[in-house]
Write a structure and sequence with these properties.
Blueprint (H helix, E strand, L loop, with lengths): L2 H4 L5 E5 L3 H12 L4 E5 L2 H10 L4 E5 L7 H10 L8 E5 L4 H9 L4 E4 L4 H52 L4 H31 L7 H15 L4 E7 L5 E7 L1 H6 L7 E3 L8 H5 L3 E3 L21 E8 L2 E9 L11
Parallel strand pairs: 1-2, 1-3, 3-4, 4-5
Antiparallel strand pairs: 6-7, 6-11, 7-8, 9-10, 10-11
């Protein structure tokens, strides 16, 4: 358990340095940024300290009596309980060999003395954030794996039920064709469920891409998995008065002849902004029947039907995503 788990909102940092002045300076820098500081004066004491409660990060001096910083770091990385704690080395030396040895023993970064508070805080914040993000990604991967196993079990059970039902109806030629059609529909839905789960797993692995690349990937997957022809992702202004046209699927870019990078007033957007007004997913399966069916400019791609959803950050709608022109009607499974 990290110390921050029982001290909510405050990250814990162990400082290891045999020089009292260095401990004092680093402690003052970190406490000013609301870190919980646990100073120690030797490598041996540091190893005992982390057993009490795991810190979120360790600042470790290289040159110390007894165990050196390199030896302490190696022992931490060899221990399963402490192997994930990021270690930043500190030293008055700035030699290439020192840095190479620091990284070889398992350190994630290196800070030289005398300390500049801006550099210390920047490196500490960065590596605590990276460590937290790594733990969160591991948790999500475990959750997704569990979800996949559960879905596979459900699919297997459903397949068995479908097959059993099909066997029961083989004696009735009149009803057999209907049951075969139902079976095929079930197989199609099962395949689509598998594709959606696979897409979720794949999307979880692209978190290191740029925001635009992530959004483009998500949008194209949304279009593909709803069997649509077009899709869009637009941001909503903070005052909820405008839609910022941000991303379109490739089919729209090919066919549309209007400015695809513009601000659009929500009050003039008609049914196209219904999901913003209601805060809920909206489906329109026959746009020709809509009173605002012409609420887009000349040259805009023709839209027969569409599905749009609001995207929330807590209770604030920050964007909308939608898909359109599916061959069949949209339904709850598409949402």
């Amino acid at each position: 358990m990290n110390s921050s788990d029982w001290n909510t909102g405050q990250k814990s940092i162990v400082i290891v340095d045999d020089m009292p002045n260095n401990l004092r300076v680093l402690s003052e820098i970190l406490r000013q940024d609301n870190y919980r500081v646990r100073p120690t004066t030797s490598g041996e004491k540091a190893l005992e300290t982390v057993k009490t409660a795991l810190p979120d990060l360790i600042l470790l001096d290289i040159k110390m009596p007894g165990l050196s910083g390199y030896e302490v770091c190696k022992k931490l990385k060899e221990n399963k309980q402490t192997s994930d704690v990021p270690v930043i080395f500190i030293s008055a030396l700035d030699e290439i060999t020192d840095k190479m040895n620091a990284f070889a023993s398992g350190g994630v970064d290196y800070i030289t003395k005398p300390f500049a508070s801006e550099e210390v805080l920047a490196r500490v914040r960065t590596h605590i954030a990276l460590s937290s993000a790594g733990h969160e990604l591991e948790r999500k991967n475990r959750d997704l794996l569990a979800a996949r196993e559960a879905l596979e079990k459900i699919n297997a059970e459903l397949e068995e039920k479908v097959l059993a039902r099909t066997r029961e109806l083989t004696a009735s030629n009149k009803r057999l064709q209907n049951e075969i059609a139902e079976h095929k529909k079930t197989e199609t839905l099962l395949k689509l469920d598998e594709e959606r789960l696979e897409a979720m797993l794949n999307l979880n692995e692209i978190s290191d891409l740029s925001e635009n690349q992530i959004i483009d990937t998500v949008l194209e997957e949304a279009v593909r998995l709803t069997r649509s022809k077009i899709g869009f992702f637009h941001f909503v202004s903070n005052n909820h008065k405008y839609i910022k046209m941000f991303r379109w699927s490739q089919e729209v870019i090919k066919e549309c002849r209007v400015n695809l990078d513009a601000m659009y007033p929500i009050e003039k957007a008609g049914v196209w902004a219904d999901c913003i007004r209601t805060g809920k997913p909206v489906i329109h399966n026959d746009c020709q029947l809509l009173p605002d069916r012409n609420a887009y400019p000349d040259g805009h791609i023709h839209i027969e039907r569409f599905l749009s959803l609001p995207i929330f950050d807590k209770d604030q709608i920050i964007a909308i995503i939608g898909a359109g022109n599916k061959k069949e009607a949209y339904d709850e499974s598409d949402i």
